[in-house]
Structures are given as C-alpha cells and as structure tokens.
Design brief:
It is a single chain. The protein is an alpha+beta fold. The chain folds into two domains: 278 residues, no CATH class; 99 residues, Elongation Factor Tu (Ef-tu), domain 3, CATH 2.40.30. The protein has nine helices and 26 strands. The strands form four sheets. Strands 14, 15, 16, 17, 18, 19, 20 and 21 form an eight-stranded antiparallel sheet that branches. A hairpin with a 4-residue loop joins strand 19 and strand 20. The radius of gyration is 20 Å and the shape is globular.
Length: 388
C-alpha cells in the first residue's frame, strides 16, 4: 500500500522554493516521503533548490528528477515551477540510481544504469536522461542490453525551455549534466503504459533507402528526401525548422518488424529538426534506421488534445485501481498547441479517476513500451499508471 501527493511551487528564491515544496509534501503525507520525483524549470539554481528541499526531507529519501520545458502537477500543466511527487510506501522498494559520462560513451552510460537496476532486482525502471549531451537512443539500447528488450522502461529526456544547451539531472543531493538518473522499483505492483501521438498519416508509405549516422535521412525510395518532404509541405516550407515540428515523420515499419503497406499503424514519431540543403537530406531528432518504412504526418491542435484524452481513457481502462499517474509530454506538442497547451493535460485528466495522483513534465523525448518493447518517442503524449 502506498500514499502519494504532489506539490507545485513558484518562488524567486530557489532555496526557499525547495523548503516550501518539502513542507507541502510532508504536511500532505503526514511524514517525510520515501520517494520524491522532482521536475524543475531550468531558471532555478538546482544546487540551492536541492539544498532547500533536503533541509526538510529524511536523509533516506530516494530522489530523482530533472529540468523541464514545463511541469505537470496534480491540477494541470504549469510553467516556471518546481513540481514534485512524494510517495510513502511500506511494500515497494525504490532505489535512486545514476550514471555519468565518466562511465564511457552513451551506450556504456545506459548499460551502467541497467546494471544497477538489475542488481536491485527492479521490475520497473523510471529513466530520465540528458538528451542534449548524450545520445539517448544509445542510452536506451545500453540499458536494454542488460535488462532485456522487453523490460519495462518509462520516462523522458530532460529539457531546458527549448534552448537545447544545458539540462540538469538530479539524484539525491547531486546535480549532474550529461547524465542518466533512474528509479528502480520492485515489489507488489502493477503498471500500465500508453503512448499516443494523434498524428494522421498521409500519403504513401516510403522506405528510407539511404540514412547517414542514423538521423540524416538522405533518400526515400531512392529519391532525395528533402524534395519529397517539400512536396508534402507545399506552402508550409517557408520555415522548415518549425514545419519539422508541426509535420513529423512516422515510422510504420522497421527492418525486423515490417509494416503492412499504407494501412500500417505508426509505431513511433520522429520530428524533423533541420535539413541538409546540399545533400537533400532531413535531420531527425532521433534515429530512423536505414530500411525503415515511414509516412508523413500531420495533426490539428484538436487532434493532439483528443489523442491525449484517448490515451488517458485507455490507461483508466487498463488499470482502474491505479494510485499514481506519471505523464511525459513532448515539448513539440506544447509548441504546436501554443496557448492551448494546458487544454491537452486538462483533457487527459478529465478521463482519469479523480483520486489518481498525477505528476510529470514536458520532455525532449519520451520512453514507453510499444508492443512489449520500450521505444523512444517524439511528439507523443506518454503516461504510466502504477498500482501498488
């Protein structure tokens, strides 16, 4: 059995923000929490924030967290806050973990965190990674090389208000850059996950016939990828950087998991973050393997909001007795939604049980299982419900 609560604080003094946040968690729970998940706007000095927070927490607390593009509290989406989940539990085991670049390259960093999770006999791993300094796809592969491809990993990539310069990761009293932190959970619990984009696939399915360094798509069906993308965008190609967020690519088939033509469902979404004009290529935020089958995607604001609502309803049906919901929402959705970004979270919350405790953040990429295997997603509303 567990009890949980959330709190959100805004304060000019990061030390005081930490103290006030801890005080709210302690008061709501009746004692200091055993577990804390912390999401903070990058404007807060993280060292002072953690110093204030730990001033009022028990030394044994298992704390992990990171900076965000915006925060998601129990009441909805907020910006410029420090938001946390506090949990007290007698039955679940939780261990805060971290691995830094001192462990080696990104693959080695992921492997190091996976080994720690395996040593603690984790049944579920919450993973928060620096997606600016690390290759997050390699981090995930490293963790899966230890834990297995079907081991459930959930989480997201730390963010910094879309500056893509300096994210921070938190573990205990420590602040890291270029690190991966995690929470290894084990004990009597069940969980359910969901990842929804709300994007509509249009046009024909095309194969990535030439990809360089996993992220630069040079050819689709043997033709320059940029030319086909421009044809698809039409009048939208005036600002390709913005268009690449609003009109991403959807992977509908992989070399080892082929799709079924133009009726194939989108497995993962990849935003286009830039172009190579000279070579006619598309630079994607995450990897698209050569041989993958893709379709062009589009969505309205209403489509994105509706998909989040449907995702929450699916979670409620999958695990109606859940106690905690963790939400990982992509920064690109917030950018597309603009002033309506709070509507998305509100629509999702309206489909969840009122006593379900909720927390999360806007990420640079989301982690959640699809068809039994954890994948990294872009432009996706991702959530997990935990019952313990």
């Amino acid at each position: 059995m567990l009890s949980a609560t959330t709190a959100s604080i805004t304060h000019d003094d990061p030390y005081q923000a930490g103290r006030d946040l801890a005080a709210e968690l302690n008061d709501a729970l009746g004692a200091s929490p055993d577990i804390v998940l912390l999401f903070a706007a990058p404007t807060y000095d993280p060292h002072r924030l953690l110093a204030g927070l730990h001033r009022r927490l028990t030394p044994r607390v298992q704390l992990v967290g990171c900076t965000s593009f915006a925060e998601i509290g129990h009441e909805g989406a907020v910006s410029g806050s420090v938001t946390a989940l506090g949990v007290r539990t007698r039955d679940l085991d939780a261990h805060a973990l971290y691995a830094t670049r001192a462990s080696g390259d990104s693959l080695a960093v992921g492997r190091a965190l996976g080994e720690q999770a395996r040593e603690r006999e984790a049944a579920l791993l919450l993973l928060l990674a620096d997606g600016v300094r690390l290759d997050s796809a390699a981090v995930l592969r490293g963790a899966q090389s230890v834990l297995g491809p079907d081991f459930p990993i959930i989480g997201g990539l730390a963010a910094d208000d879309a500056r893509f310069a300096h994210t921070r990761e938190f573990c205990g009293r420590d602040v890291f850059a270029g690190a991966v932190v995690g929470l290894a959970l084990s004990g009597p619990m069940r969980h359910a996950t969901v990842a929804r984009g709300g994007w509509e696939a249009i046009g024909a399915t095309r194969r990535c016939t030439r990809v360089e360094r996993d992220r630069l798509v040079l050819e689709l069906d043997g033709q320059p990828a940029l030319n086909l993308y421009r044809e698809y965008l039409g009048a939208q190609d005036r600002d390709l950087k913005t268009a690449g967020i609003e009109f991403p690519l959807g992977i509908v088939g992989l070399p080892d998991r082929p799709g079924v033509g133009d009726d194939a469902a989108v497995q993962v979404v990849r935003a286009v973050c830039g172009v190579d004009e000279v070579r006619g290529g598309l630079r994607c935020t995450r990897e698209i393997p050569e041989g993958a089958e893709i379709r062009m995607l589009r969505a309205t604001k209403d489509d994105l909001i509706r998909s989040a609502s449907e995702a929450a309803a699916e979670l409620g049906r999958a695990l109606p007795g859940g106690r905690i919901a963790l939400v990982f929402d992509c920064f690109s959705r917030k950018m597309v939604l603009g002033a309506r970004y709070k509507e998305e979270v509100a629509a999702a919350y309206s489909r969840l049980p009122p006593d379900l405790v909720r927390v999360g953040f806007y990420t640079y990429g989301e982690l959640a299982p699809v068809a039994g295997q954890t994948e990294q997603h872009d432009a996706t509303f991702t959530a997990v419900v935990i019952e313990g």
